[in-house]
Amino acid sequence: MNRVTTIVLTALAPISWGSTYFVASELLPPDRPLFTGAMRALPAGLLLVALSRTLPKGAWWWKSAVLGTLNIGAFFPLLFLAAYRLPGGVAAVLGSAGPLFVVGLAALLLGEKAKARNVLAAIVAALGVSMVVLTSQAQLDLVGVIAGIVSSASMGAGTVMTKRWGRPEGVGPLAVTGWQLTAGGLVIIPIAALIEGAPPALDGKAFLGYGYMMLINTGAAYFLWFRGIGSLSATSVTLLGPLSPLTAAVIGWAALGQALSPVQVLGMVIAFGATVFGQLPGRAAKPKADGPQETPRTENPKVKVA
DSSP per residue over the chain, as a string? Predict the structure, then answer.
């Protein structure tokens, strides 16, 4: 599979995540974000584990727990806390800063050079997102801001560590995705029970919404996301993240009748352009002819990270 196809398939993940607000607001019980997070992660994780028929072995038990906590178990609650404490636009802008965390962590832990073009793409994308989602009435809340920043850092660290550890030899992305979602869901469940209490009663719309969230918005989306991390650089993958708030804005306009001002449209163009710019291949100094391709890192220390 060529690089462009891999980028397009990976981009489907943040595009799917952009539908979360619409589904939650139109189909799911209100004010139950942690229950929703658990319903997104745990059933999808168990399904993927069952389909892969593969359980972690050795160190991959604790690695899956760490990655699941960073990418899911800590990320979801912090993200929802930020969304509750901040206007949606502020939370989205804090989330769009995630690529900057990844650029720094990838340089520190993966040896990916922090290129000026990537930093520029991340900053411009965040600027474009802010033009789409911020309003003059936006107010800051210290707890919400901290939660938003830490949630972005958690997801960024999870992306980088997923790239650094790769996959066990002979194990596909389906199994590894299932391990992480299961671990993350198990982290969220006690938090949801403590804060939100017993699960709410569910009607037909809720079952439809949770079914979509579990299968498409989480199971398929995270499979494509982690698969992309195995084939692309961590920075390239995370620079696709701004597609999520842009998709949310488009769905709000198309399905909910929310108006888009000229400034918002301009911001969408800027953010999308920065996202595309961030995917352009860098200039190679001296490409190796017929050289071996790097492969994802596995438990075999001789195999390098892609």
Answer: --HHHHHHHHHHHHHHHTTHHHHHHHHSPTT-HHHHHHHHHHHHHHHHHHHHT----TTHHHHHHHHHIIIIITHHHHHHHHHHHS-HHHHHHHHHTHHHHHHHHIIIII-----HHHHHHHHHHHHHHHHHH--TT----HHHHHHHHHHHHHHHHHHHHHHHH---TT--HHHHHHHHHHHHHHHHHHHHHHHH-SPPP--HHHHHHHHHIIIIIIIIHHHHHHHHHHHS-HHHHHTTTTHHHHHHHHHHHHHS-----HHHHHHHHHHHHHHHHHHSPPPPSSPPTTPPPP----SSTTSPP-
Q: Encoding tokens for residue 22?
A: 């619409």
pTM of the model: 0.85
Cβ count within 10 A of residue 215: 14
Task: Report in angstroms the alpha-carbon separations of 144 from 48, 118, 283.
Answer: 33, 27, 40
Q: In whole angstroms, what is the distance from residue 249 CA to residue 268 CA? A: 9
* 15, two tokens: 């595009």
pLDDT of res. 112: 85
Say how far apart CA 110 and CA 162 lie, in whole Å. Answer: 11
Residues 81, 68: Cα–Cα separation, whole Å: 19
pLDDT digits (tens, 9 = 90+) for 130-182: 888 776 565 667 888 888 889 889 999 999 999 999 999 999 999 999 999 99
Non-local (6+) Cβ contacts of 66 within 8 A are: 161
Report residues of the chain scoring pLDDT below 50: 285, 287-296, 298-306
